[in-house]
Design brief:
alpha+beta, 468 residues, 12 helices, 8-stranded mixed beta sheet, 6-stranded mixed beta sheet
């Protein structure tokens, strides 16, 4: 019998496996994906939001705990557990040396990501390199890893973990960490969670930025078994991505980052939200949900040539035209409405000192919705349009935890079953997102869950020896 069973293959699962092994436990990690697709959504990440009170290697200036907390409070609208959030925030200030010991390297942010140079540490090689480093370290430490091993049920004795099942195979362990992600790849569950809006099944038009393997099987299994859940199933990390992105695993390169530099129109060629509300890293993850509520779940980011070079170029080129009318026709939008919307917006712009690096004074007056920053007329050809669809990265419905990351049943923590990563992120993220916080939650609670699972396994062995 193994001491600690870790179910999942992403950042949180790997952190749990590594710390449990470091604590002396024997560890088996089960990854549903084949080896070439290992890593869950973590393979698509690129940075970690880090608290720090002074400059630290790749991080500039300071990003103290209270500012981090206020940033999180703002994007979640208060739908967060402060105790657990602050725990993750504090952990983010001390985890990077441990990460380096396991082969993770950091690099300064690229020029297109300077908004987060103070707050986020970027992985050299991105999330794929991080995942590969952790797997290499796990192998070197003696963690057993099995691929193509999708667990379909958890066997419990009351609130105690007994075994995991892969079909007819039964795998016992003294303690277990669940870290197998949300349900973003389960179209039927997404359909059920989102329902119909204006007569449309909105989830039918969603693209999945993340892994195709997150079907939510264990999440549903645990909720059905009586585990306490938290979060709204319709809330998720939901980004406006290029409508031409693949159905699964498009990752970060499908994001369209020019929203704050222009305007966004829906299928009726009308604006529907403030494109300049705040810095893009604090707002990019609301735009998928906004687009989901528009007709046909599609929208169009419109910019002119002044915006070129000011944002990370997307993987697909935009529709390009030399006049607004030509752009409208190429995008399939009503030409007269499109031109009128842009001209009305242009006339409302009050251009001061444009500076995309600060919340500048360029704004609109007399139109709704307003654009509160970075408002410049769209008047310099050629013009560009990017069609956008909602891109789901991960869902926020999860299992309720305490500071030990224990799964709860009727308000009582399990003595040997823990959960980390997306399966519990809803404790901290009730809604909204800010760049890098998902990796902070996964790293913090992955390490906590692994530590607690190793401790529970040791206590179990000591108890069994005492009985013997």
């Amino acid at each position: 019998m193994v001491d600690v069973l870790v179910i999942g293959g992403g950042n949180a699962a790997l952190c749990a496996a590594l710390v449990a092994r470091e604590a002396g436990a024997s560890v088996l990690l089960l990854e549903a994906a084949p080896r070439e697709w290992r890593g869950g959504n973590s393979q698509h990440t690129r940075n970690l939001r880090c608290m720090h009170d002074a400059p630290q290697d790749v991080l500039v200036e300071a990003y103290p705990e209270e500012e981090y907390w206020q940033d999180l409070l703002k994007v979640t609208g208060g739908l967060t557990n402060e105790t657990l959030a602050r725990l993750a925030i504090r952990e983010s200030s001390t985890c990077r040396d441990w990460m380096r010991r396991h082969g993770v390297h950091f690099q300064p942010p690229l020029s297109g990501a300077l908004h987060v140079a103070r707050t986020n540490a970027f992985f050299m090689g991105g999330g794929k390199a991080l995942v590969n480093a952790y797997f290499r370290s796990a192998q070197a430490l003696g963690v057993q890893v099995r691929y193509n091993a999708p667990v379909d049920a958890i066997e419990l004795d009351g609130d105690r973990f007994v075994a995991a099942h892969i079909g007819h195979e039964r795998i016992e362990a003294r303690a277990c960490v669940l870290a197998s992600g949300g349900f973003e790849s389960n179209r039927e569950w997404l359909r059920e969670a989102w329902g119909q809006i204006n007569g449309e099944w909105v989830a039918d038009n969603f693209l999945i930025r993340g892994t195709r393997f997150n079907m939510g099987v264990l999440l549903k299994n645990m909720i059905d078994a009586g585990a306490d859940s938290i979060g709204d199933p319709s809330q998720s990390h939901c980004v406006a991505i290029d409508a031409r992105a693949p159905l699964y695993d498009g990752g970060i390169c499908t994001r369209v980052d020019c929203v704050s530099l222009g305007v966004v129109l829906n299928r009726d060629a009308m604006r529907f939200y403030d494109e300049g509300e705040d810095f893009w890293p604090k707002r990019y993850a609301i735009w998928g949900r906004l687009v989901a509520h528009q007709p046909g779940q599609i929208a169009y980011s419109i910019i002119d040539s002044k915006a070129i070079g000011r944002f990370m170029p997307p993987v697909f080129p935009g529709i390009k035209a030399n006049s607004l009318g030509e752009l409208a026709r190429a995008a399939g939008l009503d030409e007269s409405t499109f031109v009128k919307t842009i001209e009305t917006y242009n006339a409302a712009c009050r251009v001061g000192s444009f500076d995309h690096a600060v919340l500048d004074d360029c704004h609109t007056e007399g139109i709704a919705p307003a654009k509160t920053h970075w408002a410049q007329p769209i008047d310099k050809p050629p013009y560009y349009a990017y069609a956008l669809r909602p891109g789901i990265t991960f869902t926020y419905l999860g299992l309720k935890v305490n500071e030990q990351s224990a799964v709860h049943f009727g308000g009582k923590p399990s003595p040997n079953l823990y959960v980390a990563g997306e399966m519990m992120a809803g404790n901290v993220l009730g809604k909204g997102y800010t760049a890098g916080v998902g990796m902070a939650i996964g790293t913090a609670f992955g390490r906590i869950a692994g530590t607690q699972a190793a401790r529970a396994a040791q206590q179990s062995k000591e108890a069994s020896h005492a009985v013997a």
